[in-house]
Amino acid sequence: MNIEEIDNKIEALEAQKIQYRKDQLNKMNWYERLSFNHSTKEEQNKTYSMFKRGFKGYLQNYFKLIQFKASNNHFFISGFFELENKENGNKQTYYFSIEDLRFNPTFLIRTAKDFKDYTGGNNYYLSLDDFERLKSDLDIIVRFSLK
Q1: Using the 8-state DSSP alphabet, how is residue 37 labeled?
Q2: pTM for this predicted structure
Q3: Cα separation of 64 and 62, whole Å?
Q4: How many Å apart are CA 113 and CA 111, to the nearest integer?
Q5: pLDDT tens for the 147 residues of the chain, in order
Q6: Contact partners, residue 69, CB within 8 Å, separation at least 6
Q7: Could you tell me which of 67, 28, 23 has the C-alpha nearest to residue 51?
């Protein structure tokens, strides 16, 4: 085998690797994609689109969502959402950030005064390892802050 044949095999394997990654990603839902180490902006853009629909839908199903705004940044997703307590009408704004989708991202959430308050309240880091745990932790934070 000469060097040209080796290069051709390497190219073919690289193409297979890229296709395999795409196939794996395409099988994932919005939540599962957050834990995937993204290597291209294309992967991140698709995850952002799916996250935006999925997370907003989750918030609408479990809480009274007033507003939702997400931003697609360089390998991280951030934004704000506002919820209302169904029982007493109290409202609370939250800031969230999913940091660096290339390397084991974390999900940060905190209360905020409005959609421009990037410093807000205490930081809470939610696990992306288990969706049920994420929902439970988010529920605790929301219920506590929406008294």
Answers
A1: -
A2: 0.84
A3: 7
A4: 7
A5: 899 999 999 999 999 988 888 888 889 999 898 888 888 888 889 999 999 999 999 999 999 999 999 999 888 999 999 999 988 889 999 999 998 888 878 899 999 999 999 888 899 999 888 899 999 999 999 988 887
A6: 79, 80, 81, 115
A7: 28
